[in-house]
Design a protein that fits this description.
The protein is an alpha+beta fold. Helix content is 57%, strand content 19%. The protein has three domains: 93 residues, Serine Threonine Protein Phosphatase 5, Tetratricopeptide repeat; 66 residues, Sandwich (Immunoglobulin-like), CATH 2.60.40.1120; 97 residues. The strands form four sheets. The protein has a four-stranded antiparallel β-sheet with strand order 3-2-5-6. The chain has a three-stranded mixed β-sheet with strand order 4-1-7. A hairpin with a 2-residue loop joins strand 2 and strand 3. Helix 5 runs antiparallel to helix 7.
Length: 355
């Protein structure tokens, strides 16, 4: 009998061990996170906020639930770690489905409001909005994705950069509770003269061999309209770039819209324009809006520039004679009438001139 009971006991122990091993790891992580949160809250009730901070940080790293973020933010508020507190409280309040956050939303919003009174609200406007933005040397991301930023009071350096543009930066000083507005506009660099334009300029020795009448005719022919072809072709080129940019932006918009509408992502636009489905869906919505703006600017601006350049080229070609004709060089043609070989009349064109 003892051997039978011993075997049954061993089997039961083995089954319990297997059941424990089969339990998913996230369950253990959630239990550990909950235990750490309770320990941290208990320490805070005793006034030991500094001792509670590492426990709440560990709980947040384990689960990253809205409740863990909220408890960590409240502890950081008590320790006057304003920037970290604002980040974690905002993360918790972003959740609209967590029951604990919904029950305590008013308390959390009041706490965040108090925290922001000790920070500087930085409102950024960057043109173009695809530029990369850095604050005090730390890269935040593209301007279209950054939005408003809450930073510690004091001197702040904001810089923006983008390929093909001249980087720019600005130094400001913010005070606690202040809304600091910063606008940055990146300028395109001035392009050096092309090799074609440089070679097209006449050599100094050749200019001295021209006759005086020829110089007079050249100066008369190079009046106010000589710039039109250059400007026209420049506008056409810029228009082509704008249209290409608009087409690429359209492709980006369609790709972002496809991801947003994918059922597996769970993105949805609620009544009132609120985006549900998490931060990834909100980022996709911002990508769609940004790509739509770029597409509209590129296509409309490119069409206007290209059309204006083409009109300028057409106008200059119709209103200005060529340099050879203006100088009296080349053929001059006119219709003529005469007799054919059989005595009949014939029509033709007579041409002559100096070469």
């Amino acid at each position: 009998m003892r051997s039978v009971h011993s075997v049954m006991g061993r089997c039961l122990g083995l089954l319990l061990a297997l059941a424990a091993l089969a339990t998913p790891a996230p369950v253990f992580a959630a239990d550990s996170s909950e235990l750490l949160i309770r320990q941290g809250v208990e320490l805070r009730r005793r006034g030991r906020d500094a001792d509670a901070l590492p426990k709440l940080q560990s709980a947040y790293e384990l689960s990253r639930t809205p409740r863990a973020a909220a408890q960590l933010g409240l502890c950081e508020q008590a320790l006057k770690r304003w920037s970290d507190a604002e980040q974690h409280l905002s993360e918790a309040l972003f959740s609209e489905s967590d029951a604990w956050v919904q029950r305590n939303r008013e308390v959390l919003e009041d706490a965040r409001s108090t925290v922001r009174q000790n920070l500087v609200g930085l409102e950024l406007t960057v043109t173009p909005d695809s530029a990369l933005v850095s604050i005090n040397g730390a890269l935040l991301g593209r301007a279209s994705d950054v939005g408003n930023v809450w930073i510690a009071p004091g001197p702040v350096s904001v810089s923006a950069s983008l390929d093909g543009y001249v980087p720019t930066s600005v130094e400001r000083t913010g005070h606690a509770g202040e809304a600091l507005r910063v606008s940055l506009e990146l300028a395109t660099p001035v392009a050096p003269p092309s090799a074609t334009e440089t070679s097209a300029q006449p050599a100094e020795g050749l200019a001295a061999t021209a006759s005086a009448p020829g110089r007079d005719r050249d100066s008369a022919g190079s009046g106010s309209g000589h710039w039109k072809p250059y400007v026209g072709w420049s506008l056409v080129g810029l228009g082509a770039l704008g249209l290409g940019w608009g087409a690429l932006s359209y492709s980006d918009r369609e790709a972002a819209a496809k991801d947003f509408n994918d059922d597996s992502n769970g993105c949805f636009v609620a009544p009132g324009g609120t985006i549900t489905g998490g931060s990834a869906c909100e980022a996709l919505d911002q990508d769609i809006a940004s790509a739509t703006s770029r597409m509209t600017i590129g296509l409309i601006g490119g069409a206007l520039l290209a059309g204006g350049g083409a009109a300028l080229l057409l106008f200059s070609s119709n209103s200005e004679p060529s340099s050879t004709m203006a100088a009296g060089m080349g053929p001059n043609c006119a219709p003529s009438a005469g007799l054919g070989k059989a005595g009949g009349s014939s029509l033709g064109v007579w041409c002559g001139g100096r070469f």
